[in-house]
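Practice problem: predict the structure.
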Amino acid sequence: MDMSGLSLDQAPPYNSVQRFFITAPIFSMLVSLVIAFNGEHIFFSFINIRLIGIIHWMTLGFITMSMMGAVMQMLPVLAGVKIKNPVFFSTVIHSSLSVGALLFGASYIFQMKQWLIFAGILITISMSLFSVQILYRLAILKNKSHTISAMQMSIASLTVVLCLGFYMLLWHLNVIKGAGIDIHSVHYFWAFTGWVGILIMGVSFQVIPMFYVSPEYPQLFRKNVPALIFILLILYAIMTFLPLFEINDLFLINENVYIRKAIRITIYFLFALFSIITIKQIQRRKRKLPDPALLFWYTSMIVLFLSTTLATTAEFYRGGYFIKIILLTGITFLFGFIFSVINGMLYKIVPFLSWFHLASKGIFDVPTMKDMLDDVRIKIQFIFHLLFLLSLPYYLFYPHAGHLVSGTLLFISSFLLWLNLYTVIRKYSRINNKYLLNKAKPAAT
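Answer:
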């Protein structure tokens, strides 16, 4: 494991970030229950309210929860960025995001519109505190690595997503009138490719070489691709909002649809390129020892390539299965790429943090990262995860028969993920408590 250039002494307290990681799988379990017991009609259209609910349980409860924890852990270590009062800061963000995400998804799934305002307030508090604090710390940072720059653009994207989401919430509550443009597509596009996609790229630049001792990603790719995606997202938003302004340029007006399509296809290509490069980097690693976490990485990158290919195909296809192809693209990107890669990251980050915090206290006989969790348990969870992904096309085209299968497999996979992470955290707590008890004995005597 290559830890050169890391400021490990700046790492935040153990419990301040682990709470994010152990909470995330609970939301994917909630999603699985909705799919299993009430999932026959979820994927019939884009505007199904239960679909909106489970998407936000995944994006807010699982993805954003995991990514916030990763950012708060990595920034101090990678850049020496100190977050003031990290325990209090993480407690406020974690608790407000947890309750806010829970209420937001539930308000759509159970059609309880009155919960939306409370959910919106809590989510806004959580994301605003996170974004303002982190962006300020990064703005005053002089030397930024490519990972840090990607994080900065990702969190700026999160701010855009939050603003668009808050606007749509007020519109849904009839507080304001709709703008008459496709804000939903901008909201989702910035969320999946900006906030999550760019962040996964940036984290990969650090995690893959660090944990697998692989070569660095190509300099040209690290330096330019995240920034190019961010610029393209800005252009996409401008072209979408263009009808709101009185612009007489006939070219921009007439070619708007084609310009937006070209932007989308370019972003799909860049993510497909990222998947190919990542697989090559993993294959070139110096440590060739079997590692079950790599199964999630390989799966995520293969599915990313397939989903971007599907998305590109959908740009030129308008046949009878168009809606199904769009939905299949979305759920494979969400569950096959993002969900898979976060699983793989958590299986490296959580054992590493547990090992590091114990070793930094000078505790003898600290279990190694591999001893923190048996590889067999990770492989078993991966099997159920893979079966769930394979069941998704069947569920999409035959929902009446497939929803129970997909929901059950997702629940088992998510529960095993939670159980595995809990096992690591519990092992840390047991060793740490024993250390504190032995340390207190001489003082007592």
